[in-house]
Amino acid sequence: MDTLEITLSAPAARFLFTAMGSPDAIRGAQGIGRVVLTFTRADATAALAAVRARLAAGSDSPSGRHAAKCLSAVLAGKHQPADDELVTVRLSSAVWDELYGIVGVSDHPCLLDRRSKSGAMRLTPDELACLADDLDRGNERPCRTAYLKVRDYLNSGEWRRKPKPKPMDDIKAEAEAVINETVKECIAALLANEGYVLPKGWTPEVKISWAAYRRGCNADDKGIWLAPLRWLDGTEGPKRYGEYKAIAKAPVIGSAWFADWRGVIRCVTAHEVAHVVQCGICNCNIKGPMDRTDCCKPHGVGWREIYRELRTAVVNMHVVAAPADDEAEAA
């Protein structure tokens, strides 16, 4: 026999049992916690119908909607959608009532399953696409204000879920690790080049500020001071690092695209480490393959040579092709 196991919160189970008229079962679901129920497919179908009927009759509650949602998912052979798989549509209750009449609740049970009293509806993108299709096919109906509002809202794409930002505390910790790792790689790359002589055991100091008002970065012969927040927005995906106008189009040390923000942070760090080494050569604390006087101009010939070395050894293997729209704009 085909049996289905459904896990509900205790309040959702009580709503379910009340809808099914099973007072004895209600006593078994009292208290706080979760209740695991086993149904035949036929009984689960009947239970879902009873829950939806009670919801439609006016006994609307989060517990009832939760019960309907879980039963729907199990009967459909899929897991209940996770919170990050749903998008939120916010419309007034009057507009949702109008929507029920246009597309038919029986065709879209999710309209009852996940509607809150505030008018917010939690739906999957596929469910929203189905609603938009049904509303498009309903153009022959009277153009009532609510109908037009719902249709225009869904078809506008305003509901589409944006990438969920990663918690900034997690990003900050990872960014600091990337910065420190890049500094070590930069020093290792310079030590591998016989043209550079660094003090034994020397590494530049690294200071990082996460203050929102800090936007710039600095370096001297002692270390670097970074404010990386300007390059972080909490999302993944391709990111561009823009260099100074004088070198922006240079083939090795110019502006570049990276697969994500980590590449940008590596590039920023290498830029500043190059300044540390430049200052060290200018102050005679570090020996380099170029003339000392070449390193006394902030972004002069000496700095560019050092930066080129670091970009080649540490950064540029992470460079990716620019997105199509960026290439078109550049052209």
How does this structure look, described?
The protein is of the alpha+beta class. It has 3 domains: 1-80, no CATH class; 81-161, no CATH class; 168-330, no CATH class. The chain is 47% helix and 12% strand. It contains 12 helices and 10 strands. The protein is elongated, with a radius of gyration of 30 Å.
Describe how the helices and strands are arranged.
Layout (H helix, E strand, L loop, with lengths): L2 E7 H11 L2 H6 L5 E7 H16 L5 H14 L11 E4 L2 H11 L6 H4 L6 E4 L1 H12 L8 H12 L11 H24 L13 E4 L9 E2 L3 E4 L12 E3 L14 E3 L2 H22 L18 H15 L3 E2 L3 H7 L1
Parallel strand pairs: 5-7
Antiparallel strand pairs: 1-2, 3-4, 6-7, 8-9, 9-10
Quick recap of the structure?
With 331 residues, the protein is α+β, with helices and mostly antiparallel strands. The chain is built from 12 helices and 10 strands.
From the N-terminal CA to the C-terminal CA, the straight-line distance is: 66 Å
Q: Helical element count? A: 12
Q: Can you write the helix and strand succession as a string? A: EHHEHHEHHEHHHEEEEEHHEH
Q: Can you tell me the residue ranges where pLDDT is under 50 for at least 5 consecutive residues?
A: 26-33
Mind summarizing the main beta sheet?
Answer: 3 strands, mixed
Which strand order do you get reading across the main beta sheet? 5-7-6
Provide the gyration radius in Å: 30 Å
Q: Given the helix and strand composition, which structural class is it? A: alpha+beta
Q: How would the global form be characterised? A: elongated
Q: What is the helical fraction, as a range of percent?
A: 40-55%
Q: Write down the overall mean pLDDT.
A: 78
Tally the structural domains.
Answer: 3
How many beta-strand runs? Answer: 10
Q: State which percent range the strand residues make up.
A: 5-15%
